[in-house]
Amino acid sequence: MARFTGRTAIVTGAAQGIGAAYATALAAEGANVVVADLNAERGAEVAAGIVADGGTAVFRHVDVADPESAVALAESAVAEFGAIDHLVNNAAIYGEMKLDLLLTVPWDYYKKFMSVNLDGALNMTRAVWKPMMAAGGGSIVNQSSTAAWLYSGFYGLAKVGINGLTQQLATELGGSKIRINAIAPGPIDTEATQTVTPGNLVKDMVSRIPIKRMGTPEDLVGACLYLLSDEASWVTGQILNVDGGQIIR
Question: Does residue 123 belong to any structural domain of this protein?
Fold first, then answer.
């Protein structure tokens, strides 16, 4: 399939893990991919790997917490490829996040965390919606989590915010022919998860899931591509769980 031939997609947090899988899959289906991340070395490696496999990709540095950086990324994508058709808001503080309570987390850290994990998705959406509208419309996927329905402290709170942001923006963007949805993964086997989540906790989570294994980045790819593609042309404001049945809503 080549559902994205001639289209341009920005994927934030694409230097590794889930974001890299999204970027690689989009390129394999014909998209011009902007691999966007703070980590220049690993981001450039992902873009180079896509090109080596015959795809089209460039790396661009971005700090999604900074509105000016988000706008610069959008302008760079338009300058490079002529338009922006798709955005995946995947960037987040996760692998190295502090483990603390809402009641005790240092306020400066809490604000920094939310500026990336929640406000970053809004910054990027604000940066791309006008060029996306100028291209005739497009689609956006936000990265949520089943943490939105479980106790997960400020991480879970940020994902509750992502869900609400997705639903609210669906109304604001609909008139511009832009769709926005979110994916809520369950526990995914990535380097970041291995760093932040104790092994015994992961084992306990998996034991409670109907499909008793951790997910992989590849398990999320199909949902992301579907929501971005024209196959989902009448789908917006939705949060799609890809979690092995962890959460039943």
Answer: yes
**Residue 197 pLDDT exceeds 80:** no
Give the Cα separation of 88 and 26 in Å (integer): 11
Task: For 23-44, write each residue's pLDDT tens digit.
Answer: 999 999 999 999 999 999 999 9
Query: Structure pTM?
Result: 0.95
Between the alpha carbon of residue 72 and those of residues 69, 81, 176, the distances in Å are 5, 14, 22
Residue positions annotated with a catalytic role: 155
Select the more confidently predicted residue: 194 or 187.
Answer: 187
Number of separate domains in the chain: 1
Query: What is the spatial distance between Cα 38 and Cα 64, in angstroms, rounded to a whole number?
Result: 9
Q: Could you tell me the residue range of the domain that residue 113 belongs to?
A: 8-242
The DSSP string of 114-143 is: HHHHTHHHHHHHHHHHHHHHHTT-EEEEEE
Smallest Cα–Cα separation from 24: which of 217, 244, 231? 217
CB–CB of 44/50 below 8 Å? Answer: no
Q: What is the structure's pLDDT at 192? A: 64
Residue 190 lies in a domain: yes
Distance of CA 7 to the CA centre of its chain: 18
We report the CATH number of the domain holding residue 152 as 3.40.50.720
